[in-house]
Amino acid sequence: MGMSDTLEEYFGVAEHGSDTSTEVVAGITTFLAMSYIILVNPFILADAIEIPGYSYLEVVQMVAIGTIIASVVAILVMAFYANRPFGLAPGMGLNVFFAYTVVIGLGIPWETALAAVFVEGIIFIAITAVGAREYVIRLFPEPVKFSVGAGIGIFLLFIGLLEMSIVVPDPDTAVTLGNLATDPAALLGLFGLLLTFVLWARGITGSIIIGIVSTTVIGWLTYLSGIAGSSVLPAALVGEDGGLSFAVVTSPQYDISPLLFAFADGLRDVDPLTFTLVVFTFFFVDFFDTAGTLIGVSQFGGFLDEDGNLPDIDKPLMADAVGTTVGAMVGTSTVTTYVESSTGVEEGGRTGLTALVVGVLFFITLALIPLIAMIPAYASFIALVVVGIIMLEGVLDVDWNDPAWAVSAGLTITIMPLTYSIANGLAAGIMSYPVIKAATGEFDDVRLGQWVMAVVLVGYFYVYTSGMLG
């Protein structure tokens, strides 16, 4: 029995209606869609992590190694324990909260922030092991479960268009159409997006990979031929003089000992109230981001049962719990399941073999980070726009004639992109559902746990928006 046959048997690939080649393509697709975190996360966290005797760039390289290690550990748990095709890595949004709110804004030492992440991870492992996380997620109202996929789709679409500069911020209207005619990067992104859509519409396997790679190659060719300036290259490779600089990805700092177990020092002399609030915020956002992503991507992949639940959800939940705990040990922020996993599901990924491929590719990037750095944002974010549009099919599962469904689902879908948070969208749907149900005389249809969850969320948002966190 060859390696391929062994893997197929272990992961039950055939039983899930897939095959090894499809799972490999799906894994590569997911990796390409989420690989940007390998560069983005270090630059965000390095703004907050200062280590005596080490330069900013050396800290960036250290955090990059920690990012990869935490991701690989979490993904391996997802692959071998949960057998689901989902990728994990330090979460966007949570890393921003870690760096700019907790460390820079509140003045909390970065070691203490890592300690908060570690405590959150331990709590997650404990409540996942006893089934508490699965119980809470099963309390999610049905309209929230069935609409979260569409909400994530719009969120992905919005992020992708912004990162590709097809849509840009505007002081008067919040956002507006970018300068496509004069911005070479946006124009290349638009071309790559259309190319990918054409390939996808034609049913070409690996269409998203082909679109990303083709757009990257064309971008570099336009620069090298002099047609376009350095604006078409990844910002990390452009020096202050506008020329190429590979300092960011050369001479890597593989010694991450200054980050290892630094969280232990952060447990000393902490303010109990502030520390508790920070832990709770990490806990809340990670809990609902992960739950929303798992449900949304699972809906997209046809993994949910007739009640909108993901069977054995405690297993994939354990993956992000373990990843978060290990991540804190190696110097990175909270690890979560990535919405970009939907790109691999779209390519046919159905088992942990897809996740295993993602994990192996993350590990390889320890040596190949320079190649990842050569992919410009306008190319890598093509995947988000394509999958975002595909995921909009989730709106068909919502009963828009039922007021409680319409309000809860509508808020879930719209609040996500408008507040740039999956968690906020979920919370809006959860809080509104029992209220509208009661208003329509269907009070008995609401479970006690759903009322409790709504009240807890109201309390949380009062604390969060009152300025108590700084």
UniProtKB/TrEMBL annotation:
One of its GO terms (cellular component) is plasma membrane. It is found in: Cell membrane. It is a multi-pass membrane protein. The keyword Cell cycle does not apply. Keywords: Cell membrane, Membrane, Transmembrane, Transmembrane helix, Transport. Belongs to the nucleobase:cation symporter-2 (NCS2) (TC 2.A.40) family. Azg-like subfamily. This is NCS2 family permease.
